[in-house]
Amino acid sequence: MQLKINPSRSLKGEITVPGDKSITHRAILFALMAKGQSCIRHPLISGVTSTMLSAVEMLGASYFFEGGDLFLTSPGLFELNPPGEPLDCKNSATTMRLLAGVVSAAGITAALDGSDGLRRRPMNRIVEPLKRMGVQIDAAEGGQAPLKISGRSPGQNLKGLHFESSVASAQVKSCILLAGLAADSPIVIVEPALSRDHTERMLRSLGVQIETTWKRGCSLVVLQPGGNAFLRPLDLTIPGDFSAASFILVAALITPGSEVILRRVGLNPSRTGLMVTLQEMGADIQVLDQWEEAGEPVGDIRAAYSKLRGGSVSGQRVVEMIDEFPIFAIAASFAQGATEVRDASELRLKESDRIRMLCAELSRQGINVSERTDGFTIFGNGIAPGGAVAEPHGDHRLAMSLAVLGLNAQQPVLVSRAHILAESYPEFPEVLLALGADVLSLPEENSIGGQLG
Q1: Three-class SS state of 258
Q2: Average pLDDT of the residues of the chain
Q3: For the chain: N or C, fewer Cβ within 10 A?
Q4: Contact (CB, 8 A) for 195 and 319
Q5: How far apart are CA 310 and CA 333, in angstroms?
Q6: By residue range, what is the domain housing residue 181?
Q7: Hey, which residues does 25 pair with through a beta bridge?
Q8: Is 323 a catalytic residue?
Q9: How far apart are CA 73 and CA 32, in angstroms?
Q10: pLDDT tens digits for 201-215?
Q11: Which is nearest to 324 in space by CA: 401, 402, 404, 408?
C-alpha cells in the first residue's frame, strides 16, 4: 500500500487514539504471569501486540477479544510451558527483551528469535545482567538474537543484582525487573537518566514493593522481590498511546486553521517530552483535563495550528521523547529557525538508523537538514517543498511522520510501503481522513525514490 497525501485544508474534530503500545505489552506479560483470567480494556490491537500474544499463547496462555477488550487466561508464572519452537518476536525488540525477562523468571527453556532487522538489534544489554542473575542465556555472535535461555531446577531462585546501565533503556530495565520477580534478594538498577517507568508503575499497582529515586544525577530503581502479589489477575484500562497521539498533535500544529482534541491520552511524564518541547517552541497545546488510571496519568489534549520557532533538544529530554523524533523533525521542518538535536545516538539502533534515514528522507522532500553522529539540525523556514516519493525503510514511525509532512507541503507526498504503519497505528489513514485530510490509499508501485508527476 502507498499513501498519497495532498496539501490539506484545516483538520477539525475529536479522536481517541489507540491503547498505549508500551503499556499493552506490559499488561499482556503481567496477565501471563498471573494465574487465572485477566481483563485488559482498550488494548492496542496491532501487528506488534499480535506478535506478543502469539508468543504468550506458545507459553501456555489462551485469550479472546470481546467488545474490543482482551481476556487472557494463564496457568501462572511458575506453570508456563516450555515452547516447542522458538518464540518469534518478528521485528519487535520490546517483545524479545521483555519476554526474555519473563522466561528467565519462569525458569523454563526457550529460544527467542525474530526478523533479520531484529537480529541486528543489540541484545547484550539484557544478556549480561541476566547472566549475572544466574540465568543460563546465550546469544549469537556479537550479542544479538537469536537468544537461547535454559531452564533451571524447581525451587531455584535467581540472584539479586546491582546493575549500572550505560544507557537509559526502559526495555533493559523492564527485562531485569521482570526476571527479578524470581530473585532471592533485591534488584537495584542505576540509569544515567530516567527512562519510561510503565513497568514500575504497574508493579506498584499490583502490590510489588518497588521504589524509584533520583540520586547523584542518576535514576535509582530498587525492587524487593518476594510474595505473590504480582500473581493476581489484572483488570485494567490501557490509556491512549501518547506516541500515536503525537502524529495527530503535529498534524494539527502544522496545518493552518486546525484544531483537534485527543481524548484519554496517557500523560506519563517520562513520555511527554515532545509536548513540552513543542510548547517551548510556541505550540498551542493544552491539557484540558487529567486523571489517573492503573497508576498512569491520563488526560484530554487540545492542539491548534501554531507558528513554531526553532528549538533544541538534548540530555534528559531526549529520553523523554525517544520515540517521537521522526514526528518532531516534521514539526521542526515547519518552524522558523534552526532546531538542534543532540545526545540522541540511540536513534541509530531503532527499527532503522533513524538519524540517517530521517535526514535522507527530509532532504528528499526539500528540507534543509544536517546530520551528526548524535543527532541532526533542521534549518526551518516554515515551508516544506514535498513532491517526492518517501521511503519509510520498514519504520512505522517514519512512515506516519512523512505522511504528516504532506499535509502542509507545497506538493503532494507519496509514502511507499505504508503498510508498515499497521505495526502500531492501523487506523492512522482513516483518522486523518475523518479529521479532513486529503489522503488516498493506492496500490504499491516501483516508484521509490522518485519525484511525483
Answers
A1: coil
A2: 94
A3: C
A4: yes
A5: 9
A6: 21-117+127-137+157-228
A7: none
A8: yes
A9: 7
A10: 999 988 899 999 988
A11: 401
